[in-house]
Amino acid sequence: MNLSAVISQAAHYFGGRPAVIFEDQFITYAGLNLAVNRVTAYLQARGLNPGERAAIFMTNRPEWVAIYYGIIRAGGVAVCLSAAEKRQEIGQRLVDSGARFLITCAELAPQIPHQEKIPDTEVLSVETDPVLSRLFTKVGGFADQPKMIDRQADDPCAILYTGGTTGTPKGAALTHRNILFTSQNICYHERTHPQDKAICFMPLNHVFGGNHIMNSIFYGCGAMVLLKKFDMDEILGSISTHQITRFYSVPTVYIRLLANPDAKRLFESVTYCFSAATSMAPEIVRRWKSEFNLTIHESYGMTETASLVTFNHLYNHRIGSVGTLAGTVEARLVDPEGRPVPVGETGEIIIRGPNVMHGYFGKPEETRMALRGGWLHSGDIGRFDEDGYLYVVDRIKDIVITGGLNVYPSEVEGVLYTHPAVHECAVVGLSDEEYGEAVTALVVLKEGRETTEMELIGYCKEAIASFKAPKRVVFVAALQKSPAGKVLRREIKEKYQAKG
Prior knowledge:
The protein has 500 residues and is α/β, with parallel strands linked by helices. The protein has helices spanning 5-14, 29-45, 62-73, 87-97, 176-190, 207-219, 232-242, 251-258, 263-266, 282-292, 364-370, 409-416, 453-463, 489-499, and strands at residues 18-22, 25-28, 53-57, 77-80, 101-104, 122-125, 156-161, 171-175, 197-200, 223-226, 246-249, 272-275, 296-302, 307-312, 324-325, 330-334, 347-352, 359-360, 376-384, 390-395, 400-402, 405-407, 422-432, 436-445, 472-475. The chain is 30% helix and 25% strand.
């Protein structure tokens, strides 16, 4: 078994069709497979052995794709690093993963640690390396037919670092089985077709960009229109130019598109919309359906599950839910003692199935805790309804305890999003002498709209219990977000806690 066979199989059946479209490059599956072979042969010649790690530290570009599958075809493990990280962070990831190679680009060269800090890692650049700089040329300068290394299904295939929202980022080791199962699962539930064109402006190192979009669209033999980064004008232009059929994004982008008067006209080719990274406020889903006549599909998943756990849904979509269990994945809800909770009640989501990671690379104790009892403990709170639809309530560590009562930030945010003046919001708990924590809302207003702190507090009290309503509203120009577009509640909380 080898994940990279997805590319060679697509080249066999659809060699002349586009695999990657990037700026003015149209790379067919035959061309991509040739580039993957060149990377594989080159790394094998340089001494990469099966099971050894090679890291990718680049912005989104076609070379990222070829190098990822080339490492894996050689029997190696692709360590996927965020282009947003800085020198110290990259040094930590390279030491943690024991990467033998680091493949990067000139743009990120200033963030590469000095060689004495990473003595066991050889650095290669796609601009200056004689082979990597010519992956998509007619003459690649290296052998084009290397041996694909057969791996066991549960051998590590890629290492993706978690976002670090619960501490020091850990490398989730995903196996060939994990990623292939997830790719097939996504293609089945989303009904991916070889004629599909999917846009990807999410970072490829992230589980959403790399697994949910890239790996699944190639598994389905469709085309990926790859953008270097998020740029609203470029996104809308690409949708129109390339007649995108599948749109993948995060809640913050859907919110911005709803405020863009040109977006609806340019979305005429789009037949499928999907959102990830964090739960979508129900009001945004309703507005999108009303204005674009498209459903925003959602799922529940995480880095440790190679993406998909649940899916909401082609045939019976329920707003506010992340759907029903996908494929043979299992999930339960348990209380703090690990006991199952009844239908309709909340508990921690625990998961098992062929998509669940091998473990955290080089961290046996953290792996044991995360996978205790044979189930992945997510740290997320959810509830199932009687029909098996999952509703994610919040992260355990994001719960606000005010006056001894639990408040789920996502519930309060869902109310705030229904207010006509609110563009974006985040709810956190800040220390308070009287209540322990005070429910605090950070709010970005829509352009040209006004409201007051007292109006928003009163608005929430009319919709939810008074103790859940914000005790304070702070109006801000923007919210802190991750490179994947996820609102970073914990960083927001730390920032405003420090301000007092």
